[in-house]
Design goal:
Length: 379
Amino acid sequence: MQLQFTEEQEQFRSKIREFCEREIEPRAVEIDCSDIYPWDILKKMAGEGYLGIPIPAEYCGLAKNSVSYVNAIEEISRVSASVGVIVAVHTSVSSLPILMFGTEEQKQRFLVPLAKGEMIGGFALTEPSAGSDAASQTTTAVREGDEYILNGAKSFITSGSEGGVIIVMAMTDTKKRHHGISSFIVEKGMPGFKYGVKEHKMGLMGSDTCELIFEDCRVPVENRLSDEGEGFKIAMASLDGGRSGIGAQALGIAQRALEESVRFAGAKDRSGAAPADSQAVQFMLADMATNITAARLLIYSAADMKDRKEPFTVNSAMAKLYAAQMARDVTIKAVQIHGHQGCTDRHIVERLFREAKVTEIYEGTNEVQRLVIAKRLLS
Ligand code: CAA
């Protein structure tokens, strides 16, 4: 078996790489240093359709498959992981749940503007005391007539304060754990929907990460996604696709670290010597390339399984687990190869090193991916 892009996928890959190098690369350092949410870039991406890559044409998307989608996340993250995570969350865990579980009316009202990039989407599952154990939610949604009244808080929400809509999980029946969770499309500006702490992170500065607070937030019944009690399954099914996207983000970060390391190691000094003359450096480069290739196979095979409508939960978890660990190791090696310079902002590897770490944490930690994999092995 060989994983090979079709001609159309190759063309899409070249087009998006060219866009990223032209439009994002020149801004990547500034986005990282100054904590700017990159609205200007997102608007340009919207113009190319890149905020609706896997969304069907009838909802104004590009109608590409999952392989092309993860490819896009890899390419974007190769130049800016901040932009990569915004697009990944917007697409996999905000737009796609509406496509998979929304009514036709919800698709017209929310999915179409998301796919056109008229607004950015977010996803709110994590709470201050419910991260990996997602079923221990405490945010509540109590029905009153044609509305739900939401109370509680969500943490570390990507595009939390910039997003136009956020898919929010809340308990409609606190006694039923998983089966008591429902999903809501919460719109920016709804009464009682407030923003809390904005996080200052070690990497991905340009992506807004903040706390969301719901104080008697009134959400109309027509904004509930699917039936009451379906929220946990919606979240898990959305994360299945999201996890190979985050794996692709890790892959893009690592690929860039390898490219930079090969360039740096190959550069000769005045005496004609180069770091790559050392076998120690050669071995590091060889391990980096091997592990990147292994991660790439896992990621694209999980995406391909999704496209073929095969169960891919475990494969997506494996892809994210392996790719995130790989990106951490590859970026550590990249800094090592660059020596002192790698510990300064003179080289991008310092940023890549900071960006790689969170891929082991968000959309399910390494430990959560192991739980998902082990559960299927033992069932
Ligand atoms: N698809 C559909 N349904 C699923 C599913 C899936 N992939 N996985 C589980 N379910 C269903 C099960 O079938 C089960 O349903 P029934 O009760 O009807 O049988 C129900 O969900 C409960 O399943 P589990 O017993 O496996 O659930 P659990 O409590 O043991 O949870 C867990 C397992 C995998 C640890 C889960 O809690 C989890 O994924 N936690 C991590 C959450 C996470 O990834 N958070 C990241 C937040 S998003 C983020 O970071 C975004 C951002 O902004 C960057």
